[in-house]
Amino acid sequence: MASEPLHISNTITIAGWELTEQFVLAGGPGGQNVNKVSTAVQLFYDLRNSPALSERVKANALKLAGRRVSKDGVLMIEASRFRSQERNREDARERLKELILKAAEPPPPPRRKTKPTKGSVERRLKAKSGRSDVKRMRTRPDGE
Questions:
Q1: What is the tens place of the pLDDT at every residue in 38-78?
Q2: How far apart (Å, rounded) are the C-alpha atoms in residues 115 and 121?
Q3: Residue 30 predicted with pLDDT over 70
Q4: What is the mean pLDDT of residues 96-112?
Q5: d(CA 26, CA 49)
Q6: Once rounded to an integer, what is the mean pLDDT over residues 93-106?
Q7: Is a pLDDT exceeding 90 seen at residue 135?
Q8: How far is it, in rounded angstroms, from Cα 60 to Cα 49?
Q9: Which residue from 26, 38, 59, 118 has the fewest beta carbons nearer than 10 Å?
Q10: Which bin fits 127, alpha (ψ -120 to 50), beta or left (φ > 0)?
Q11: Cα separation of 9 and 100, whole Å?
Q12: Distance between CA atoms of 27 and 38, rounded to whole angstroms?
């Protein structure tokens, strides 16, 4: 169990009891240290049932997380980038923070419909008639 809370923003703080960490053996480079010490971190966070997040942020986070979320709504972040357990732990918590911050961003403003200007319509029609003239000139002349 992670003990200290994770501060995401001024309004969002995840309590320490909501985060669960599990340390596992990491693969990759690192020599004998990798084979003997469990340095990789698996951080589990129940997105769907968390009281710290609003429904909109939960829905966005579930979409952003993709395959990292189980059917029960539990997000798993695995960090094995570094050789030390503590740095991997910080990395996993930082990645969770980034995901939630991205999910908490406000939606973009709705698109405003615009009309083409009178000049742009005239230029487009003039260009079309010019192309039409060019293509008409390519045809066979009338047999007079």
A1: 888 899 998 888 888 888 988 998 898 889 888 888 999 99
A2: 10
A3: no
A4: 91
A5: 29
A6: 91
A7: yes
A8: 14
A9: 118
A10: alpha
A11: 10
A12: 10
User: From the CB of residue 65, how many other CB atoms can be counted at a distance below 10 Å?
Assistant: 19
Is the pLDDT at 17 greater than 80, yes or no? yes
Q: Residues, the chain, total? A: 144
Q: What is the pLDDT of residue 110?
A: 95
Three-state SS letters, the chain:
CCCCCEECCCCCEECHHHEEEEEECCCCCCCHHHHHCCCEEEEEEECCCCCCCCHHHHHHHHHHHHHHECCCCEEEEEECCCCCHHHHHHHHHHHHHHHHHHHHCCCCCCCCCCCCCHHHHHHHHHHHHHHHHHHHHCCCCCCC
Which amino acid does the sequence have at 29? Answer: P
- Long-range CB pairs of 32-38 (<8 Å, 24+ gap) are 33/83, 34/83, 37/85, 38/85
Span between the terminal Cα atoms of the chain, in Å? 95
Q: Output the six-digit token pair for 94.
A: 């930082």
